[in-house]
Amino acid sequence: MSDAPKSAFRLPPPTVGRVDLLIIAGEHSGDQHGATMVRELLAKRPGLNIAALGGPELAGAGAQLLHDLTASSVVGLVEVLKNYSFFKALFHETLRWIEEYKPRAVCFVDYPGLNLRLAKALFERGLSAKGGGTIKLIYYISPQIWAWKGGRRFTMAKHLDALAVIFPFEVDCYKDTSLPVEFVGHPFLAEGHEPPVRYDHNGPILLLPGSRKQAVGRIFPLLLAGHAAYGRRDAVVLYPSDDILEVLKTANPPANVRLLPTGAPVAASAVLTSSGTMSMHCALAAIPGAIAYRANPLTYLMGRLLVKIEYIGIANLLLKEPMYPEYIQGAASPKALAAELTDCLGNIDRLIRTQSQAERLRASLRRPANGTAADWVARQMG
Length: 382
What we know:
Blueprint: E1 21-25, H1 28-44, E2 50-54, H2 56-61, E3 64-68, H3 77-82, H4 84-101, E4 105-109, H5 112-124, E5 136-140, H6 152-159, E6 162-165, E7 181-183, E8 197-199, E9 205-208, H7 213-230, E10 235-239, H8 242-249, E11 257-261, E12 266-268, E13 270-273, H9 277-284, E14 289-293, H10 297-306, H11 314-319, E15 326-328, H12 334-346, H13 348-365, H14 373-381
Parallel strand pairs: 1-2, 1-4, 2-3, 4-5, 5-6, 6-7, 8-12, 9-10, 9-13, 10-11, 13-14, 14-15
């Protein structure tokens, strides 16, 4: 989060003339997916000028980084309220920047709490194409309308020009709207994408607490306790950024738990993971494991009231079965997590089942014939 006073928060001007595309990605996963798309897009259209509110991955892919949103990513009602003044300043400054520099298109990447509000405001101010202006609004990676707030699809259709989804079933979620929706394949299966994990029966155990500071602070101690209760193999923890590393260090992990930055693929024999993006990487790599999750009690209570899905892990949802058994809130005990590790590392039937489930996932998520996310963006921009 910026150290400047909120009233003085200011985004820099473009380093080029007119910006062709502004990308807004507020989380580490969105930063990574947006970066994959930008690299391919710039390879096909090297003259495009792209700016981003995102993170280091988008910057490394060739976009001008206006502000690192990933450093201030939070989840849950309580956490958002604590940071309300910052997000309010960010929202109004982003609108001001778009109004002044008028990019040809804005591509929102996931992060609906901010992005759908921005789309509505751009429409109401007459800046977006559907609002009478010149700026095309496109959205990559759908909000999880199939889990909660399904009515958002109608306001999305009103404000957005097009949507690209990464799960094939999501196309049907919008069939009763006028919004053009395309399945573009999952970015983890994109050509040239290097996964951060791979399976190795003799490898260490992976502990993956997530990429949001508040969630990591709650979940990492659970994973450490489960690993300690198992007690028979070293562990590796992957972290996406230095701010997450600092949170991990506060848990005082023992010497047999190594902290490594996400980068070159890490081989692992089993995994205890939160329900986020990395759990999908592990599922596609056929690493057996389990999900452990703990939210702020108030956030969890509200989630139980609002979210009506059978699983919180996306691989489980796609397969309609528990590839990764889920231990939520108090159920995530050291004993339960240790028992999962014992089964993952000692039950050959578990491994065979995980490999079969991984292949089914890969088959369902591969790129369709009409191209990648970059091809979709290029078509939208004309």
